[in-house]
Amino acid sequence: MMSGVIITVNQENIIEWDGLKASEYHAKTTMMMSSWAVIDLFGLIEKYIFRLLDIFVRANPQHLMRGKEYRDLRRIFNARKNSDDSETLWKAEFNKRIESWKRKRLYDGIDKVFLNYLEISEIRGLDPYRWDIHVICIKAISMLRNCLIHGQDTVPSDLAEQLKHKNLAGIRLNEGEPLIFGTEYLQSIELYLNNLITELNKSLMERAINEQ
After folding, report:
1. How many angstroms separate the CA atoms of 61 and 66, rounded?
2. Which H or E run contains 43?
3. Taking CA 105 as the corner, what is the angle to CA 100 and CA 107, rounded to the nearest 5 degrees?
4. Which of 28, 131, 143, 197 allows an S-S link to 124, with CB 3.0 to 4.6 Å?
5. How far, in Å, CA of 142 to CA of 45, rounded?
6. Is the pLDDT of residue 53 over 70?
7. pLDDT digits (tens, 9 = 90+) for 59-69
């Protein structure tokens, strides 16, 4: 029978701060977490917009089959109902086309990708001014994300100009000032994105009703 072993653990403080110093570092951590949250949110925006496009082009594949270079793809599309093998071939080839198209569109900027979706889905035509403002706001969040990723210390002029639109009124970042991003700005972006998705859903319903 083994005898019991007693292990004694001594607790050591890694570092000690007074209240003032602890609150200072806590504030810095809060701003850092807000920045990371915006970066993550923008990643979700990109996925959401590309998902919208994916759904649309799968329902309307002709948008990705225009031009002489896609003549063979159109032939495969027209023959897709001939057999199960023809249907499988069509799905495989069109998936390749979609993935190739997505990779190329990534270099355009997500604001232009979003504008493309609004145009081909005919949502922009319902209220061009309103949706053009949304495209500008998406671009502003994209620019802000880039500044946070690359450790920009001050607010650049192009970002300050983009953030003047009323849809992002909760964010006050002026040119040349320190780029300090707190939780209140994170809340403004979350609110804006929630409103954007709500407006998209309403516009999609309006488009569906207009087609009836």
Report:
1. 10
2. helix 19-59
3. 115
4. 131
5. 10
6. yes
7. 999 989 998 99
